[in-house]
Amino acid sequence: MTTAVSIPRTGGSGGHTAVAARARQVVKAYGSGETRVVALDHVDVDIARSQYTAIMGPSGSGKSTLMHCLAGLDTVTSGNIYINETEVTGLKDKKLTQLRRDRIGFIFQAFNLLPTLNAIENITLPMDIAGRKPDRAWLDRVVDTVGLAGRLKHRPNQLSGGQQQRVAVARALAARPEIIFGDEPTGNLDSRAGAEVLSFLRRSVDELGQTIVMVTHDPVAASYANRVLYLADGRIVDEMYNPTAELVLERMKHFDARGRVS
Amino acid sequence: MTVLKTSLRNFLAHKGRMALSAIAVLLSVAFVCGTLVFTDTMNSTFDKIFSATAPDVSVSPKDAPSGDDMQRTRKVPTIPAAKIAELEKVKGVKSAAGDTVSTSITAVDKNNKKLSLVDGAPSVATNWDSGELKSVEVTSGHEPRGPTDVMVDADTAKKKKLKIGDTVRIIAVPGDFTTTITGIATFQVTNPGSAIFYLDDETAQRRLLGATGKYTSIALTAAPGVGHDELKKSVIAKLGPGSDLKVKTKAETKEENKDDLGAFLDVMKYAMLGFAGIAVLVGIFLIVNTFSMLVAQRTREIGLMRAIGSSRRQINRSVLLEALLLGVVGSILGVLGGIGLAIGLMKLMGTMGMNLDTSELTVKATTPIVGVVIGVLTTVIAAYIPARRAGSISPMAALRDAGTPAEGRAGKIRAVLGFLLTGSGAAALAVTANADKAADGAMFLGLGVLLTLIGFIVIGPLLASVVVRALSAVLLRAFGSVGRLAERNALRNPRRTGATGAALMIGLALVACLSVVGSSMVASASDELDKSVGADFIIEADNGPIKPQVERAIKGAKHLSHVTDYKSFEDAILTTPSGKKIKEEVNAASPTYAQDLRSPVIEGKLVDGFAKNAIAIPEGFAKDHKVAMGDTLSVDFKEGGTAKVTVRVIASEDTAFNKGSIHIGVETAKAHVTADNMPQNLMMFAEAKEGHDREAYESIKAGLAIDPSVNVRDQADYKKLLEDQIGQMLNLVYGLLGLAIIVAILGVVNTLALSVVERTREIGLMRAIGLSRRQMRRMIRLESVVIALFGALLGLGLGMAWGATAQKLLALEGLKTLEIPWPTIITVFIGSALIGLLAALIPAFRAGRMNVLNAIATD
């Protein structure tokens, strides 16, 4: 059993606890009997508010599964997950959808945008679906920060990969979710475009107080985070605060070597 | 071999996606085969009954009515009984027997209810002799032996719940008489629908012909080894030249009997095949869409195949091969379905009284071949364009993103071609609307309909963009962002939306067109009825003319100011002053007819046309044969003498009733034709004395109690009758068009289902960012509704334009009032929205159920 539970610290704004999301004893297993595969093995984790958390680990370590479970996209076999004080595990589809819509933002590796909608329509989509009016000033600020002002009427296929990901980031931010989950958000981008998106995410944490959880296998991407969690074989095996690319790479080599030895 | 293998694997891998296309092929082929099997079975059933009942050689008077023709005059042409002995002596005759047959009868039970199996099918009264045993068997009771005995066929007995001892009153031309059932006879072959009443020999002669010692025909049985044709020759030789008798072999009688019926069956067959053709056409759209979408979804795979060395032709062929497999599977099932459909149709006819035995189902060898050829050809032809498109996919496609490449916007060439076609179609319709002669216009109408239809199909994708936007602006706004997403989805591939909508358009255009024409017919007829019909009552028999005793009863009714006779000489010959002989139908009516039907005239006063030795001719006749007012014509009635008549009226042809008919006064006819040879009244008209309408009606009604097959209708009833008749016809046609519409609905389902598969990742994304299941389902439903309404709008618009044009053209034939049946049109429009909802049911459910994680998983 492994834990990455931080000691609650006060922080964030009005009434919220310092922990934006928690997982307690989460198990995710596929199949049964001999073919049973455990993707998450009694994981405990706290995601700090207004912090940028990276989840790393080799392929098959369960990092994506953990993120999917935290975000309410996937169900768990046992254990509990909370977003703020709301228990996600056990919610019915309807409530879960509402939760995703109103309190969570997503950035995927690819195919983030609806091809039929232009950039601004994509950005406001979660609010449109909820039937909420976007906060004009906030939206302008987000759009401005992402640097898309001139391209809002463009369809996704008229935008570069980096621009598309920035639109996705803007969409995730525009609704002011409590937490944003990114699944290799720069996985499909070249290093320059990737750096743009990552520094933008960083700024949204620093300047807007956003909470971000990001799955990645890229040490450079992880170096933008406040804290890095390492997963292996469905367990959290290590964590690192204030990482740099070199330190992360170092640590991963260490794990890889350990993996090969065992 | 590998090509075959990949095709087969692809076919099996996508059998779900092929299922709807297969159903479309199945339905079309089933309809074609069902029609063929059904009409072939009808034909063979009638063939058998005619074979069983027709004598080897029959001898009958030359002017005897043939086949199902009704007896028109009081006197029936007959042969003296003495001829039997004479004919028996002819070499090769085994036996000769006299037949007395009348189809001009109405039989009623003790409650005065008509004893006919099918409305419109003849009831037959005939004499019983041992020759009848060839086709029937007395299954209970005994054959008729005395003047009040009757034996009835088992089908009629069963349907009308008759049993031995029941009273049957038979209304024949010479008078009516009452009989008691003494026996029931069962046919050895299927008797499709005639109610048959057997009388004894003498009773038949006396009651049906009015006198004994004569027959309507003589049946000869050939001696063993003597051919029918040979016997016919010897009989003709015996009768000698100049005989007024005609001799027919069994084959000839059969042919004659089948002529009328065969013509009807042919019309039915081709009409049904026409509707099947429309369904096939609609099915093509579905198949084109299916293959286009399958190819689009498989772009990467095909790119890979090309990259590793498949040639264009191989790709092309592999898609066509899949189509071939689909066609074969669909057609074979379709053939089986067709047989089922034919059985269903026979059962349906059974409930309407027609007696068809499913054990006699006739499946000709050509039927399955025709079915499979049609099914396979259509499928392969429909898949040809998508197959070519597949062949032209570049190997680079393998390297590109998995997303479906957006098909280009509707091309310029398509737009130009579409507008050209639609434009010339519209021009042809305009010409039609302004045509002076109906015959000229008809060709342009056909051309206009065809061109506008093809034009609309070609510019469908362009129209889709415009119409869907407009529809969405009106309908989808209320649904906020979900509505907008639905609109965008419907618009993202205009070609697909266009083809899906076009499939629905075809069926609905025909519905709209026919409903416009139908309601215009009703409106025009009732306008015309109001304008020109003065008679209070119109009296007609269900089937054939009004019998003399009924005529007398009507004339005896009280509170009437006049009663009008109306009869017709079908084969009269007119001789113009220039000596030209013209065979034309001449109608004879009482002078009061001028009040009953106030037909417009060009010259003269209408009533003068019915005066003694006067004639009223239509303007067309006057023009064609250069006959003017005051000219003298001679009329040979063919049933008596020749009358010299003077033209006193030239009637206008700008009317719906009696358009182009020639009329004389009934007195003129009576002066030259004996009472026996005088045709019976086809119709009668009557007018009530001022203020006694109700009593007059009741009085006529009471008089008609003697023959329930004759009806009296006032003007309101008559309008209702017209409306009902046209309504029934339209319902039948709508029912048949239903098939094409069902196939079109399958097309909508198909497009949506494949779209949902295609958009798996989008759906996952939307669900991830918070679109609820319900919103997802609503989005798909709205897309479906918009597509359906797009098709409906196009179809209804096109159909109403066709209908209005047809009405303009038919205005020349009396269809003067244009009536757009808005309730029908609006119902169809709303119905289309429901169809859209229905079509989206399963695709929407599947989209809602899609696993979010699978959907967003990268590769």
TrEMBL record, chain A:
GO terms for MF: ATP binding; ATP hydrolysis activity; transmembrane transporter activity
Alphabetized InterPro entries for the sequence = AAA+_ATPase, ABC_transporter-like_ATP-bd, ABC_transporter-like_CS, ABC_transpr_LolD-like, MacB-like_ATP-bd, P-loop_NTPase
Stretches assigned to the ABC transporter domain:
21-258
Keyword Zinc annotated? no
Enumerate the UniProt keywords alphabetically. Answer: ATP-binding, Nucleotide-binding, Transport
Q: Which domain of life is it from?
A: Bacteria
A Gene Ontology CC term for this entry?
Answer: plasma membrane
Pfam families in the record: ABC_tran
PANTHER family linked: ABC TRANSPORTER RELATED (PTHR24220:SF685), IMPORT ATP-BINDING PROTEIN (PTHR24220)
Report what the protein is called.
Putative ABC transport system ATP-binding protein
Origin species: Streptomyces zagrosensis
Automatic annotation (TrEMBL), chain B:
Q: Which residues form the MacB-like periplasmic core domain?
A: 19-235, 500-698
Write down the superkingdom of origin: Bacteria
Against Pfam families, the record matches this protein to: FtsX, MacB_PCD
Localization terms from the record: Cell membrane
What is this protein's record name? Putative ABC transport system permease protein
* Membrane topology category: Multi-pass membrane protein
Instruction: Note the InterPro entries from the entry.
Output: ABC3_permease_C, MacB_PCD, Macrolide_Exporter_MacB
Give the residue spans that cross the bilayer.
Answer: 270-296, 319-345, 365-387, 415-435, 447-476, 497-517, 732-757, 782-802, 822-845
Q: Which family does it belong to?
A: Belongs to the ABC-4 integral membrane protein family.
Question: According to its record, what are the GO cellular component terms?
Answer: plasma membrane
- Gene Ontology MF terms in the entry: transmembrane transporter activity
Report the residue ranges that make up the ABC3 transporter permease C-terminal domain in this protein. 275-395, 736-851
Keyword terms of this UniProt record: Cell membrane, Membrane, Transmembrane, Transmembrane helix
